[in-house]
Design goal:
Blueprint lengths: L6 H133 L5 H14 L4
Helix pairs in contact: 1-2
Length: 162
């Protein structure tokens, strides 16, 4: 058996193998690398977007917590203000009621004092008239107007007036 090397055959096989490598590279490796690069970039962009969304959502959560805290503080302040206002209103109403009752009581006392004064004057006048009538009956004579006035004045001086 003789081994012979055929240069034409080896050179055609090298050329065929080179063409095959070039075709595989052109139609399989380059498109596959392009696809994988695009996919890697897409995944990278998705991860960056997800991280950015996560940061934004964390910021929103912090902002919402701060807003909730402020709302609670405002509600507390409003409640305290309302309670203080109601206490002040209650105190003011009580003060006004006390002043009104004091005023009504003073007015009633004045009216009672005036009524008592009038009643005393009327009683004194009637007592004087009754005294004169009684004296006329007892003495069986008519007393002049001057005598009546003198008698009434003397009787009034003798009465205890309070």
């Amino acid at each position: 058996m003789v081994i012979s090397i055929n240069l034409w055959e080896i050179s055609f096989q090298i050329i065929n193998f080179t063409i095959l490598l070039w075709l595989i590279n052109k139609f399989l490796v380059i498109p596959m690398n392009t696809f994988l690069d695009k996919r890697a970039n897409s995944i990278k962009d998705d991860i960056e977007t997800a991280e950015e969304n996560l940061r934004k959502s964390e910021d929103l959560v912090k902002e919402n917590k701060e807003l909730l805290k402020q709302a609670r503080l405002e509600a507390k302040q409003i409640r305290e203000t309302t309670e203080n206002a109601s206490k002040n209103d209650r105190v003011q109403m009580l003060t006004q009621a006390k002043e009104e009752s004091k005023r009504v009581l003073e007015q009633a006392q004045k009216e009672i004092g005036l009524s008592v004064s009038r009643a005393k004057k009327e009683l004194l006048s009637e007592i004087g008239d009754l005294s004169v009538m009684l004296s006329e009956r007892i003495l069986s004579r008519t007393i002049s107007e001057n005598d009546k006035q003198t008698f009434v004045k003397e009787s009034l001086k003798k009465l205890p007036l309070s």
